[in-house]
Amino acid sequence: MDTDSDICRVCRSEGTLDKPLYHPCVCTGSIKFIHQECLVQWLKHSRKEYCELCKHRFAFTPSKSQCICRC
Ligand SMILES: [Zn+2]
Ligand SMILES: [Zn+2]
Description:
Radius of gyration: 12 Å
Number of strands: 2
CATH topology: Herpes Virus-1
Helix content: 10-25%
Largest sheet: 2 strands, antiparallel
Catalytic activity: S-ubiquitinyl-[E2 ubiquitin-conjugating enzyme]-L-cysteine + [acceptor protein]-L-lysine = [E2 ubiquitin-conjugating enzyme]-L-cysteine + N(6)-ubiquitinyl-[acceptor protein]-L-lysine
Low-confidence stretches: none
Structural class: mainly alpha
Membrane topology: Multi-pass membrane protein
Strand order of the largest sheet: 1-2
InterPro entries: Znf_RING-CH, Znf_RING/FYVE/PHD
Number of helices: 1
Distance between the termini: 38 Å
Subunit structure: Interacts with DIO2. Interacts with SQLE.
Bound molecules: zinc ion
Keywords: Acetylation, Endoplasmic reticulum, Membrane, Metal-binding, Transferase, Transmembrane, Transmembrane helix, Ubl conjugation, Ubl conjugation pathway, Zinc, Zinc-finger
Number of domains: 1
Order of helices and strands: EEH
CATH class: Alpha Beta
Mean pLDDT: 82
């Protein structure tokens, strides 16, 4: 098991140039990273705007799909 590589908490695959990994909340460890695409899907599915583990509101606006910062 390669536990050193960063993987998406949803789909369990690594980040790529096309689909980089983000860390939109304050979780650490294996659940730290998520694809933007996977996060959007999760947000749609769960209808939540915050992480259910750390309760941190995602620094992410699905409508501004290219920007994950708070600008
Ligand atoms: Zn993913
Ligand atoms: Zn979190």
